[in-house]
Amino acid sequence: MSPATVPADVDEESDQELLTGRARHEDLAERLLEPLWSTPRWMKPALIVTFAMTLMLVGAVLYTMVSGIGVWGNRIPVVWAFAITNFVWWIGIGHAGTFISAFLLLLEQKWRASINRFAEAMTIFAVMQAALFPLLHLGRPWYFYWLVPYPSTMSIWPQFRSALTWDVAAISTYFTVSVLFWYLGLVPDFAVARDRAPTKARRLVYGVFALGWRGSASGWMRYRTVYALLAGVAAPLVVSVHSIVSMDFATAQLPGWHSEIFPPFFVAGAILSGLAMVFLLMLPVRRLYRLEEVITVRHLDMLARFTLVTSCIVGYSYAAEAYNAAYGGDVFEMSQIFSTRARGPFAWAFWGTIVCNVLAPQILWLRRARRSAPFLFALSFAVQVGMWVERFLIIVASQSRDFLPSSFRTYTPSFIDGTILVGTLGCFLFLMLLFIRYVPFIPIREVQRLQRSLAEERSA
Amino acid sequence: MPGDDGHASSISRRNWLAYSAATAALAACQRAPRGKIIPYGRAPSSARPGVPIEYATAHEVDGRAVGLIVVARDGRPIKVEGNPAHPSSVGATRVFDQTLVTSLYDPDRARGPTNHGQPASWQTFEKAFPGDLDARGEGLAILLPRISSPLVSMLLERTKQARSGVRVYFHSPLEPDNVWSATKLAFGSALDVLLHPAKARVVLSLGGDFLATGAGHLRHARAWSAIRRERADDIDGMPRLYLVESQKTPTGAAADHRLAASRAEMVAIARAVAAAVMKSTAAGERGGLEKAIVDPSWEGDTAHAPFVAACAKDLVRAGTDALVVVGDDAPVELHVLAYVLNARLGSTGQTFIRPPVLAPGDRSASIEALTDRLSSGEIERLLVLDTNPVYSARSLHFERAMKNARMSICLGLYENETARHCQWFLPIAHPLESWGDTRAHDGSVSVIQPLIEPLYSGRTAAEVLALLLTDVDRSPLALAKASFGERQSKGSFDEEAWETSLRTGVEAETSFGTARPEIREADCAEFLHEWQVQRSALEIHLRADPAVHDGRFSNEPRLLELPDPFSRVAWIQCATMSPGTARAAGIIDGSLVRLKTEAGEVTLPAAIISGFANGVVSVTLGWGRDGSELAARGRGANAHSLVSSCREWGAPGEIAVVGGGVPLPRSQETDSLEGREETIVRLRRAGTQAPPDEPRRLTLFDAESRSVHAWGMTIDLGACTGCNVCVVACQVENNVPVVGARGVQQGRIMHWLRIDRYVVSDEGAPIDVFMPMLCQHCERAPCEYVCPVKATVHSDDGLNEMVYNRCVGTRFCSNNCPYKVRRFNWFDYHEHDTDLTALAENPEVTVRARGVMEKCTFCVQRIRTAEHTATVEDRPLARDEVVSACAAACPTEAIVFGDIADPLARVSKARSTAGSYSVLGELGTEPRVRYLPRRRNPNPELT
Question: At what angle do helices A262-288 and A373-392 cross, to 10 degrees?
């Protein structure tokens, strides 16, 4: 055996790190169900604050619908601004969940078990925030269904050459599959919750959601098959959704948008921001619910490695974009990349993006950094901000200075733009809190299975 | 409108309109003629519902008319075009001619007579006036604008015959008084200058903006661009324009050699050129003029020596083909000097004509004389007809003088500043509601005929004047006919000639004879010899606003939203200056500055543009209105308060910063091309080879056109003067809304056609280029394939069509449009339309809803109407039958529209001109709009 295979053995060994503590099989379930039966003190104020933010979002959305898009800062030539930036950002965040669940399931990565539920919920809620924007962003949102290929009496179909038509299909497919995947994973855990619920009402509610799951061997067998199949369906969607979103830009001829590298670049960026969001949400929950034994430093390490990989891909894409502009020598492309972004009015965004998304994650080469929760939290925050700014840069900088200098115009967001962004954050967190409060957010059955397989490994 | 800072969303007006909605709706319909009511079901056989009818009329501004053809539909005027037969129009219009239809339906117009602010009626007024006026009319003064109407002239004559005590005064804020003074001195009588720029080969303009302002400028612009286009390849034949100016004007932008100089410097340059010209044309012994002009004190100024030498040499070489033009605002001496030079060179490009206006340069009929008489109490009754001296004669404090009159009467379209200080206010009939007559800049008479009965009991100035006479039929039509009869002077009224005159819009052989009178050399020499040049650290210049003129059009939102050709600022009056002037005073763009002269001060935001002379600040007139015009009120300051007399065009002054910078509402943020000259703006020097036409790209999808027509356009950058009339014409034709100052600042201006301005360098010389930019109707339109709902599609005849009904407003099309000509309805911009204002909208064009995209359609409604008419008449579409609104309005024929499938169409010929190119052609969008390069003919000795 060559020495190259040794690290694999090391990894195999360190899988033991994925579940620490000495909880017994049954106790583990009790332990993981605990958040469902008791409300921590911080929960109520957190719910109130995030709900207030959600109401703010509702208010801003209604105001926009009643008055028109003019209440935003959008203008000619920056006709897409905050809304589309937010859309791409939220969709990106929505990538990590399915990536972790489906991809890692197919790759038989054991470490996905304790974090996949959390990431999936995050995906769904993030896609919900994202889906708001393309709708709200329409001049006449009440006609949004014209983008859907439904058999109208006038025989008018959407135009399939437009990336936006495919956007609708991609996002709705992704959302549907993500919800199904998430819910399917939840069914056995709902059954556990049903079986152990302290009150009748809860038993009833969890019972309804458990869909009569009995945990029989044949049930498990079919369940596994369906779960794997769904994972097979979901995995390509991770790639397709952001690829198609990137087409919204890549198919346009705007300097700074018209670029072949966009699909892989967007997917990598999406996973980067998704992983960062997983850290941002998971680290506090892990701490607050004392879940260090279930979500171990080994998990953090693995996630951090992925973060580093995607960050490097994103860095490569930035470099490729600049290189292609310089190599191509197109006056508009050059001006966009080098005058507008690198040195011009958007230099803050350009360099901020590089620092947050490429340079800062390089610290993850250090093992200590990968295993430090506070550092990962801070880094994720930086990456999250960096990814938002990157989307803002791509979208707004390209539009604000394109071909004819006469139409160059600086962009300033309005108060409503900010309110909607903050509001979606509030709404997202509100939904996450509800999820943490009412749904088993660590997959009980999966963790029990992991426990068993780790025990078997140990005894072997 | 949302986002606007006020004009259309004023609560009081809206409430008021709500109460009077029914009245307005009724009043807005075309009223049947008085006396007999004919239901429209039994309309005259000539009137067909929905079929537009055209009437010729004229619009007089500052005593000179431009002939118009107004289109009415179902009895309501909706569009104004120029009258090609009219000498001052030659088919083109000015911006404020275009908005006549909107001002007709302006909700702020006065609705009826008032007495001491209380509603009154014409009957009560007729009892009070002339009332107990004695038979001689002693103590009555009439104040008129500088007017050229033969009818008013006739009525004034008769009034004076009947009542010899009546005094008549004239006042317009923008009188060419210096011209009249100078001609009086040089030729013995007040004359108007008639320019023939196309006859010239070398023109020197000293602040003369003959292509964009002043009498006959539409005609000048047409002739000038035509001759430059025709001789584009001929370096000696193409007229060359040398120009010195202190501000920036469209003519300056069109110059081949332009110098920015303060007025004092301009005088120095002019004197140096004059000295050089006189030196080289002096034959034998020196006369008085040479002695005055060829003088060391004149020759000075070495800074501009090469310009002076080359220009003088060129002028002398051109001889009779040389022409010196001076701006109306220049000092009298400069005018005299120009006449002397033209006389010496034998210039045929300048002739003189009796001014068409009444009492030109007559000081005893001036507003100063009136103010004196009012103050001394000699005048008991004051009748102010359609002029606003309280606003424009600020230096005289006219409102104080008026108080001495026992009775004061004001006739006007709005209850303006003067109306507020008068006892009686009477509504005037709008030009489109009036019978009357007027003269063009060359004296040709046009009959003004109404398109509609007066909406609000308005009467013309002539009708009010006729109250003083007992022996006339006071109906407006009868008055106009009486005036016509007097002109014909054939005894009996020639009904046929009258109808011909109405139909053609201009009366044949009524223009004044032009002449080149002998110049009084001795007087001129003496006058010029005593020339004291005034120098000051800071010159403050006043000029007419390019959009709202002297303030009479300042209630017109479309004019207020028109970006200044140079600063690109809309809705706001600015103190405009050069970067050098600004730096010296610590001013940044948008700083609030206080301008102070001996007469007064104003506080305005500063706009900085390159190309202004250092030490000069320019302020436009027409702002700071304080009447009942709600859109105009509270905008800017009254610049008349900076001068101490009505005849001054500026004053020395001081400037100081008083506030921080506020972002100005600009339609364009940068005038630099950022190194993209080749693909956006091309220059072409006379006599040089045009760059080859770019080859058509190979494509796999060469769709054959299935239509016989292919609509296209050519825009000549060498001809465009940036006058903006196409922009307004497009708005009026296509119901394009206004967005307010905030909207402009946010980049939401809705103009389908905009005029971009760039400063490009031609071997170091900064050249202003105006580039009309509109939907290019790309054959491979990038907007089309990105629309998810097929709301923008291509027609067989090559139009890029916008389906408003289908648009959901993703705005992807705008992103993918390299020309950024698509406009989005960010709000419901027609929310505040009333039954009344909606009447100005073109019924052929959809009023767009909130949330949809819109853009230039190549006036598709005109194309389809012409096609339908041709089909009904069973004939093919005639060559050049369809003209877009912008092309129709253009004074220089810079925009040519037509069928590019017809090789003999004007547009096809223009497209095949050498050097024509597509903007951003390398993107492969294959635009249907092609541009002709900006022509230049610089003097080889100067480059």
Answer: 140
Which residue in chain B has the smallest CA separation from A414? B746
Q: Report the alpha-carbon distance of residue B770 to residue B719 in Å, rounded.
A: 9
Show which of residues 334-373 on chain A sit within 8 Å of chain B, judged by CB atoms: 335, 339
**CA A119, CA A380: separation in Å to the nearest integer?**
15
Point out the residue among B757, B820, B923 whose CB comes nearest to the CB of A253.
B923
Could you report the per-residue pLDDT of A222-266, keeping only the tens digit for each?
A: 999 999 899 888 888 888 888 999 999 999 999 999 988 999 999
pLDDT above 90 covers a percentage of chain A that reads: 57
A179-238 residues touching B, CB cutoff 8 A: none
Supply the ipTM of this predicted assembly.
0.92
Cβ–Cβ gap B782/A159 under 8 Å: no
What residue segments make up the domains of chain A, in order of their start?
A: 40-145+158-455
B736/chain A closest Cα distance in angstroms: 16
Nearest to A46, CA basis, from A273, A281, A274: A281
- State the Cα–Cα distance between residues B427 and B414, nearest whole angstrom: 7
Contacts with B402 (C-beta within 8 Å, 6 or more apart), sequence order: B374, B382, B390, B408, B421, B422
A81 touches chain B (CB under 8 A): no
pLDDT of residue A27: 78
Strands B202-206 and B853-854: unpaired
Superfamily of domain A40-145+158-455: Formate dehydrogenase/DMSO reductase domain (1.20.1630.10)
Is some CB atom of chain B closer than 8 A to the CB atom of A155? no
Residue with tokens 């458990």: A210
Cis peptide before B130 (omega within 30 of 0): yes
How would you class B557 by CB atoms within 10 Å of its CB: exposed for 0-12, middle for 13-18, buried for 19 or more?
buried
Q: Residue B556 has what pLDDT? A: 93
User: Cβ separation of B920 and A404 shorter than 8 Å?
Assistant: yes
pLDDT tier at A154, thresholds 50, 70, 90: confident
Q: What is the pLDDT of residues A21-55, one digit of tens each?
A: 666 777 778 888 888 888 889 999 999 999 999 99
Q: Mention every residue, 6+ apart, whose C-beta is less than 8 A from residue B650.
A: B263, B329, B539, B540, B541, B542, B642, B643
Interface test with B, best of A76, A133, A137 (most B CBs within 10 A): A76
> Does A405 sit within 8 Å of B674, measured CB to CB?
yes
- Token output for B604: 């305005």
DSSP letters spanning B665-713: -BS-S----TT-HHHH--EEETTSPPPPPPPPPP-S--PPP-SS--EEE
- pLDDT tens digits, residue range A108-143? 777 777 788 888 899 999 999 999 999 999 999 999
Nearest CA in chain A to B851: A139
**CB A170 within 8 Å of CB A148:** no
CB-CB: which of B675, B771, B809 is closest to A139?
B809
Per-window interface: A 371-430 vs B, CB < 8 A: 399, 402-410
> For residue B673, what is the nearest residue in chain A, using CA coordinates?
A405
Coarse DSSP helix, strand, coil percentages of chain B, rounded to the nearest 5 percent: 30, 20, 50
Q: Measured between alpha carbons, how far apart are the two ends of chain B, in Å?
A: 51
What the block records as the tokens of A148 is 């859907």
Nearest CA in chain A to B751: A76
pLDDT of residue B35: 47
A331–chain B Cβ distance below 8 A for any pair: yes
Written as six digits, the tokens of A344 are 């011009």
Q: What angle do CA A180, A182, A184 make, to 5 degrees?
A: 65
List of chain B residues with pLDDT < 70: 1-47, 283-286, 300-302, 490-491, 693, 695-697, 701-706
